[in-house]
Amino acid sequence: MTAGWDETEFEAIFREHYQRVVRITRRVLRRDSEAEEICAEVFLRLYRSGPGVAAGGLVGGWLYRTASRAAIDALRAHQRRGLEEELEAGASAHSEDPAEGPLTQLLRAERIAQVRSVLAQLKVDKAQILLLRYGGLKYQEIAAAMHISAASVGTMLARAEAEFSRLYEQQQELSRKASLFETVKERR
Amino acid sequence: MKHTDLNQGTLRAYLDSQLDPGQLSAVEDHLQGCAACQQEVLVLNTHASCAREGLSRLPELPQGDNVAIAWAEFQRKREDAMDAEQGHWGLWQKLSLAGGGLAAVALVVALTVAPVRAWAETFLAIFRVEHFTVLELNPDSFKKNGLQNDQMLNQTVGRMLSDEVTVTQKPQKPQLVADAAAASKLAGFPVQLLSSETPAALVFESGVAVQMKLDQDRLQSILDEAGRSDLQIPSSVDGARIAVRVPPGIMAFYGHCGNMPSQLVGSSPDGDHQAHIVVGAGGKPTRSHEETDSTCMTLMELPSPIVSAPAEINPAQIAQVVLQFLGMSANDAANFTQTVDWTSTLVLPTIRGKSSYEQVHINGNEGALLRPTGPGQPDHFSLIWVDDGILHALNGTGDNTTAINLASQLE
What we know:
The complex is a heterodimer of chains A (188) and B (411). Chain A is 78% helix and 0% strand. By secondary structure, chain A is mainly alpha-helical. Chain B has helices at 8-15, 21-33, 35-56, 67-87, 91-96, 98-112, 114-124, 139-145, 151-162, 180-187, 216-225, 260-265, 273-277, 315-325, 330-338, 400-408; strands spanning 131-137, 165-169, 175-176, 201-205, 208-213, 241-246, 249-254, 297-303, 306-308, 345-351, 355-362, 365-372, 380-387, 390-397. An 8-stranded antiparallel sheet of chain B has the order 3-4-7-8-14-13-12-11, with helices on both faces. In chain B, strands 2-5-6-9 form a 4-stranded antiparallel sheet, covered by helices on one side. Classes of the chains: A mainly alpha (188), B alpha+beta (411). The interface between A and B is large, with 68 and 57 residues.
């Protein structure tokens, strides 16, 4: 059924790629438990599919592609249902810095929500290339993961960044207007 | 390097120091004398900085995230998943029930669970069932493609599509009805029952309607993840809205079927499809706690499900992709799709060596009789036919003559 993974070989793959895969899913998804769940699903899928699934390519590439895809799908699903905003709004934005005040935490949570919202609005391959590049993958690795030529990574990345910038600035502008509106309302 | 040789991608790679030394010095030389490219680099750099700044806000891994713990946790999850796989059937197993002699029930399962139904219907291209044909699949091909028993793949398909599915008519909880007259009144068509037998239970199942929007990108990723990026989802499907309507139907139980009827009635309206799976499941694993015996027969009747799709959708083209995905060669898939009218033919997938199939006639209507060929219940049959627009499926135990005689005597 599993078409012959050697357990030692599979464990080595898991150990080599786990951190990067979970890094991708954790960055995209608000809840760590969901990010880890998706990460485990991706490895389970690899296990079930057997070594043949990545034949002709690198296992790492398959893992990063599948993980980023699954995480973006989950994020988009949350956004459609309005769940992400709800989670972000109600989140107590756990902080790495214990000295960080509640207002700073709230602002940080809001900015994370903005970035995720922009990622969810992008076409999937654009969101994917941004996640992979800013997750630390080199152009060659991105090319292998996304089944594209290394020469076209730069072009795709440039387009994705341009689109991201446009939407991100829009988001920030909206957010600025919203807080201005709130301030005016409070003064009245 | 000439200006025309330099594209946006090369300039972007230059910013990331991802060019080889030869390219790098050529680009640097060119940039010194080209104001337009310098400007382009500035723009690219602004966008890249914005993206970097944005993505750097996303949380990093917490400290102490331990791979050893993750591996131990993964091993536990994998064990649970493998155990669960023994007792649950994924979509593929459900569809392959057809091969195990349970085509109709598999179909009901596929048609009753929203995302799965939409997927199955779209890809089996059932527009309105008038004819049947059996497609024999080679199990070696699934193994080769890593598909057999791949519950994870099925879940992926369900998860990926479920976001796009809207239930426009929610299914109600199945309910027991007293007799054929009451069943007909509820179902809206003349329900016919076996003339020689009295049903032990008669269950009405409400209709359901769903709409889904197809996403070429998403569907393509399913193929990619299964290692089949060689197959291309036609671009015509992108954004297409597919509507699926499954009319209300009835399920009659005869003989000793254990607690199958009560399980069906007890299932949730949103489709606890496990309850449907037990119906007529024969020697396969079931969730039924009470044993059934060879006297158990089930009869399902419902008007043909209808799938509406935009005119630009070519079901034969989609079918070709699916057939190749299931392990057929491109040539075989092309040949097979040409023999089928995809707007009116229900294709019952069977697995070579797991079932036998015979074309039969029930009161002048064509039908399909399927039997499992493996050990277990050698006499088990599934008989499927369409009479006056109503899809019928009779599951039971007996020889061909018994099956056809029973089916011919509905009234």
